Amino acid sequence: xxxxxxxxxxxPVLDRVLFVGESFFIPIFLINIGLxxxxxxxxxxxxxILISAVLIATIxxxxxxxxxxxxxxxxxxxxxxxxxxxxxxxxxxSYVGGHxxxx
Length: 103
What we know:
By secondary structure, the protein is mostly helical. It has helices at 12-36, 39-44, 46-73, 78-87, 90-100. α3 (46-73) crosses α4.
């Protein structure tokens, strides 16, 4: 972040810094975080599965409620509201963005 103002947008230095960050530091960080997870907990403790299911249901439920309320406020059709609700997810956003952009 600190080097963004000092290095031009198109420069070999910025390319090298981004390459090192994206190809080395970010994967190391993700591997490190992955090693902290104990996968046997997901299989042996039913509370973990229940908490995960509740969190996932809450996430998708609030997204759909938000898209429904927004759609009702702005008088969107049912299909537009469902599309808006699906666009809140990563895969849905890629799909909607690709089709809206003509890709």
